[in-house]
Design goal:
seven-stranded mixed β-sheet; Rossmann fold; 20% strand; 8 helices
Length: 320
């Protein structure tokens, strides 16, 4: 893929750009390992996706990632032979970043499923950074409950320790769990990661450099532990509308549960619910996207750019 041209000038870009047709052709002849019912179980509420979209976008992505994983294994084997080192191969870590409601959870689950059903059936674990959010009580005590999802609302040291342990090859590493119904970390609940072949880490700010409490940049970044990174991208106006649509859908479903954190929104009218969702977006999700999430897009190895109908219109792959 050559450089992007505009008029008579050549613009140098770190990315090779693929439209839907050229990207889909990369996995020509490959067979989808899931059906419509299985796809529905993987898709996040409000994320409109079908098997054709999986074949067009996510199957080629899985094939590309498989090439990277295999190349990493070959390099490890050659390096081990050269050094006379019998250390076991450590997990290959794939980060998936993007805004609230953009579809990164669906992307992560699809990658987990597609990669796990590939040749040699590698073991693929999926961890979300939601579990590393500070508990609501602590966020409230720090005056951060209204900034939930911002970099400072996470226990970044705990997340760094988790990734460092995983990439060191340690077994039985655990991550905290989050419950979206209660909108809080589940006390005492843990997800155990025991040396998988591949780890998919999904989160809003996984590509964010962050700052220490004293304002200085940290010596170690989350991205230091990533082997590959994906950013799910879309126009802010589209993401905002998807967030509102999801909020309206949740008001009719999950919010009906009297134990749900957002149960107080269940009886809002459509107009009231839309106004509430827009106010939450304006106060929290929009500023977080603009200030913290979107600026990390250029750090990703691959960017999936979505259209207003949720379909991926083009793929940007960082040149090697």
């Amino acid at each position: 893929m050559g450089p992007v041209t505009a008029g008579t000038r050549t613009q140098v870009s770190p990315y090779a750009v693929f439209d839907r047709g050229s990207w889909r052709a990369l996995a020509a002849g490959s067979t989808l390992p899931l059906d419509e019912a299985e796809l529905r179980a993987l898709a996040t509420l409000g994320d409109r996706i079908d098997l054709d979209e999986v074949a067009t976008v996510y199957l080629p992505l899985a094939e590309l990632l498989r090439l990277h994983v295999e190349a990493s294994r070959r390099l490890w084997a050659a390096r081990s032979a050269f050094l006379g080192d019998g250390t076991a191969k450590v997990p290959y870590v794939i980060a998936v970043a993007g805004s609230v409601a953009v579809g990164k959870s669906t992307t992560s689950r699809l990658l987990q499923t597609l990669l796990a059903t590939g040749p040699d059936a590698p073991r693929v674990d999926l961890v979300t950074t939601d579990g590393f959010l500070l508990p609501n009580a602590e966020l409230e005590a720090r005056g951060l409950l209204g900034r939930k999802g911002f970099p400072e609302s996470y226990d970044r040291r705990a997340l760094l320790r988790f990734l460092a342990a995983v990439k060191s090859g340690r077994g039985q590493v655990s991550a905290p769990l989050y419950d979206h119904q209660s909108y809080d970390v589940v006390p005492g609940a843990r997800q155990v990661v025991d040396r998988p072949d591949i780890l998919v880490l999904e989160g809003l700010n996984v590509l964010q450099a962050g700052r220490l409490p004293d304002g200085h940049a940290p010596e170690v970044f989350l991205s230091d532990f990533f082997d590959f990174s994906v950013y799910v991208d879309a126009a802010e106006a589209d993401i905002q509308e998807w967030y509102v649509e999801r909020f309206l859908a949740l008001r009719r479903t999950a919010f009906r549960d009297s134990t749900a954190y957002f149960h107080r929104y269940a009886d809002l009218t459509d107009e009231e619910a839309r106004a509430t969702a827009l106010s939450i977006w304006a106060a929290v999700n929009g500023p977080n996207l603009r200030s913290n999430i979107a600026p990390t897009r250029s750090r990703a190895r691959l960017v999936l750019q979505k259209s207003a109908d949720h379909s991926v219109r083009r793929v940007l792959l960082r040149k090697i």
